Amino acid sequence: MAKFTTAGAVTTHDTTDQSIDTRFGTPLDAIYIGVAGDVNLTLSKTGESAVLFKNMLAGTIYPLSAKYIMSTNTTATNIVALDTGSQYA
Question: Which of 22, 25, 60, 8 lies closest to 39 in space, CA to CA?
Answer without folding.
Answer: 60
